[in-house]
Amino acid sequence: MISRRRFQEMVAEERADQNQNMKRIQWLVVGAVWSIDTTEYGLAKTKITLLRDLASKYQLPSPLVQPSENGEMIATYLDVMFKKHGAPMFLKRDLGSPLNCQAVDEVLERHSVLPLNSPPGYPRYNGSMEKGMSELKSALDQRRFQALASQCPLSVDVELATHQLNHRRLRSLQGRTPCQVFHGPQRRHFHGASRQRIFREVFAEFWQYLQTMPQRSPHQVRAAWRLVVETWLRRQGWIIVKEKSPTQVSTISNIFYSQN
Hints:
globular; 8 helices; six-stranded mixed beta sheet; alpha/beta
């Protein structure tokens, strides 16, 4: 038995999920939003942590390769990459993982980067990164097969495979490579004054939104933050949200959706 209020909440959550399944995000500003995620590869289940610029589909060079996923190591890796390549304004990451730990939060705060956490149990929210990891594994499979006799270290193959993927010409980038787009003149760089202004705007809107919420569970607060950030990005013209038409198929499976 559940209360009428809880039933109405469940209906609202299901409708929201269906609406999300009908959305596809196009990222327009190079350098504004990066994504981070970790995958495992090979029989040893080695952990590979990738950073990806969502607008250019550029995978930052030298992915982190380690035997197990470690939050402190990931934080150090992020700090190095931010200093070397310039930090984005937002960073997408999984909610319940070493990517979401105090050490990583401290690095984000130090570089004034706003986190954008995925909903729990919903990897499609970070669909562009999911695709990037799949592409990297395919490229690694080819390289590892070819370099089997040379016993090339996995970290070297990861570096070379990432370089290879970054120099493909993509139709979605009008025939340019991710490397060309990421390092081109259209990339946005964020400095102290502009970062602080964006911080104030986003947090002010988030606080105003919280005042209208009758209940504030952790799940609802995290969902509100994602909504406020998406609304702000749309208003700035940094993203385009496209509604996907339902595909007519004879299945009860949910329509696949991703944020690319």
